[in-house]
TrEMBL record:
Keywords: Cell membrane, Glycoprotein, Membrane, Transmembrane, Transmembrane helix
Function: Insulin-regulated facilitative hexose transporter that mediates the transport of glucose and fructose. Facilitates hepatic influx of dietary trehalose, which in turn inhibits glucose and fructose influx triggering a starvation signal and hepatic autophagy through activation of AMPK and ULK1. Also able to mediate the transport of dehydroascorbate.
Subcellular localization, as worded in the UniProt entry: Cell membrane
PROSITE patterns: MFS, SUGAR_TRANSPORT_1, SUGAR_TRANSPORT_2
Protein name: Solute carrier family 2, facilitated glucose transporter member 8
Annotated signal sequence range: none
GO cellular component, one term: plasma membrane
Catalytic activity of the protein: D-fructose(out) = D-fructose(in); L-dehydroascorbate(out) = L-dehydroascorbate(in); D-glucose(out) = D-glucose(in); alpha,alpha-trehalose(in) = alpha,alpha-trehalose(out)
Membrane topology: Multi-pass membrane protein
GO BP: D-glucose transmembrane transport
Amino acid sequence: MTPEDPEETQPLLEPPGGSAPRGRRVFLAAFAATLGPLSFGFALGYSSPAIPSLQRAAPPAPRLDDEAASWFGAVVTLGAAAGGVLGGWLVDRAGRKLSLLLCSVPFVTGFAVITAAQDVWMLLGGRLLTGLACGVASLVAPVYISEISYPAVRGLLGSCVQLMVVIGILLAYLAGWVLEWRWLAVLGCVPPSLMLLLMCFMPETPRFLLTQHRRQEAMAALQFLWGSEQGWEEPPIGAEQGFHLALLWQPGIYKPFVIGVSLMAFQQLSGVNAIMFYTETIFEEAKFKDSSLASIIVGVIQVLFTAVAALIMDRAGRRLLLALSGMVMVFSMSAFGAYFKLTQGSPGNSSHVALSAPISTEPVDASVGLAWLAVGSMCLFIAGGPQALWSLLARLRLLHHQCPFHLVLCP
């Protein structure tokens, strides 16, 4: 979402003189809220370094076999699905601020359960709790940020949400390089705990307070965030309307709904979540000596290209970026599949070579260079990931204020 959107540039409360607010506390409030997406990203990326660590664990610590490892990575999505439904209910009833405060509880509890885990079921239960928190945070945080931001910074702060998700994934990869799974789970408690602390001092969004007929509190929140309340007017009555199934017959509703659901479905079916959950395991299956380093390279590429996509999105256009994204992802996955095919059954293949191995003038196996084919194709897949998708969905949402889908972030 950017300030150029006509619907979006209509501020919550509009000054008659047209002067833009200059409050800086809005950045602090936005940072506090984006700790939710950061925790979300950390939870997504946690399984990548944790699974190999748990598979090497010695008794009495829990140890994962291949089937349990698969569930350990995937069960977070079940919790996130439930969290998305719960978040949609909480955000309109408990409010944006309280929803963010509440979602920090399953984040901390889930990582605490993982830290204290004595068997596989405790590990899966902890992952399920963090997934529940992910679903709530991914829905509530963008709503909170969009409603506290004034138009001049709304696009900037909105783009920080997805950026913080991928930074959280990278943080998990980096920390997993030096920490084993228990201490990595302890580190996972830090961002949601900090969010809980900071959000206690942040106000509820003025828009939500106005919908609850708490105008005095809304003006106080506005002054805290934007630095002024003089001469500001309330949004028109009836701006917030409920959704009814009968509205799906309207072209302005069902067209963006079908497009949005289709895009989300194709994005999930692309396998991007599987890459995030099992990055290190995938490289270990390819028998890389430096699977942790390869995972970190993938995480860095994802952060860089998410930032680049946010910068060029308005000029290049969402549809063009999505089309290019699809082509790059098809090519990169084909190349990665070709790597596995070429190295299958070859005892001296490139997968046994360290990424940082020095170049030698002596003859080596011709397939050594294939190590970089694997890393390069994975990086291309992540670079071509649909970073423009969620911004496009946000714009589809703006086509009609009653469009029935909520935006749930995914990497």
